[in-house]
Amino acid sequence: MILHSRLILPALAVVFLATMPGQAADYDPPIVVDEAPEFVPVEVGSGWYLRGDVGYSVNKPYDYFQVPPGFTSSESPVSASVGMGYHFTDYFRGELNFGLLPTSKFSDDFLTTCEGTQTVTVTNPDGSSTVASGRRNRDCEGSNAGSNKAYNMMANAFVDLGTYSGFTPFIGGGVGVAYSTYRLAAGSRNCVDQSSTVGNTTSIFECDDPSVYEGGVTSERQYNFAYSLGAGVNYRFSRNASVDLGYEYFAVPQAKYVSLDSAGAPVINEGIDYHQVKLGLRYDLW
């Protein structure tokens, strides 16, 4: 009995050891979980900015070479624009702007005559009426009147020259298209119907068809090449907002406009240019 036990135990040990590699091969390999990459949000609109500007022309874009007696004018030296820009690098940016340019209108007034029909009615003592009618002239006001308007769309590029204590000087310029209009009514007359009654006599003056008093009307709408050059300084007063102050020379070499020549007569000139001081606000979209 003891001999059998001594033989059986080593045999069982051999069988157990022989089955170990097979059982080990049945185990699944360990699962390795890679750490997920950290989520980094993407900034929407990074590099883009909105802007708005107002400008003040220090010279008159629409020159009047002679100001005769009776001359009146209304000019707006103010320009304004809105647009969007993009920072390509820390030193270079581009913009697309749409704006309103300075405007003007004038009137050179003088005395002239207007034609019409005058009807005189006399009431007689017996209640009857005597009527007489005929062609007459009467004094009235004449004028040479003109107006100028212009708009533009510009593609601009700027170089920022570094930031010093929050101030960033820049230089730049642009090219684009200017849409301008002018209207000139030379020799127009302001004829007004008039009636009066003195005693038993009534007088009525009726002007001719108003179209004959418009004078010589000339008008045109134009699209012309425009360009600008400028420089200034920017100051950032918050994370997203900053203000610009600068100078700009703006020109539309082939734009036509109405004015008065050296003799005080209405004339159509060519070439608009002016110097202006500009104040702008930028808002970065990030």
UniProtKB/TrEMBL annotation:
**Which superkingdom heads the taxonomic lineage of this protein's source?**
Bacteria
The region annotated as signal peptide is 1-24
The entry's keywords: Signal
- InterPro entries the record matches: Beta-barrel_OMP, OMP/PagP_B-barrel
Q: Could you confirm whether the keyword NADP appears in this record?
A: no
Q: Where is the Outer membrane protein beta-barrel domain?
A: 46-283
The question of whether DNA damage is a record keyword is answered with no
Protein name listed in UniProt: Outer membrane insertion C-terminal signal
User: Organism source for this protein?
Assistant: Neomesorhizobium albiziae
